[in-house]
Specification:
Structural class: alpha+beta
Radius of gyration: 17 Å
Number of helices: 2
CATH architecture: 2-Layer Sandwich
Largest sheet: 4 strands, antiparallel
Shape: elongated
Number of domains: 1
CATH class: Alpha Beta
Distance between the termini: 9 Å
Amino acid sequence: MKLITAIIREEKLDEVRQALIDAEIERITVTRVSGHGQQQEIEVHRGIKIIPNLIPRVQIVIACNEAFEDITVNAILKTAKTGEHGEVGDGKIFIQDLKECIRIRTGERGGQAI
């Protein structure tokens, strides 16, 4: 089992969500988050360094069985990129091993609970 976390631009959420649905990945969790990465530029105003505000993003979390890892990642990669070659700030995808999943309602465990 894998836990896939993607941080993407807010305006790409609907497009990414539809691509996931088209790939039969329908169980997702979405959270509004803020942060900054390479696009951060420290400005100097009157000799004082000013760190820019955090940039709003969307975090998508998907638990899936290993057979769906590449399908999920490819759907996100295909649709979250801005323009043909992408831009700084398009986001990141993190993939982690998922030790256990338990469905609270039934007590099912593992891949069946996903």
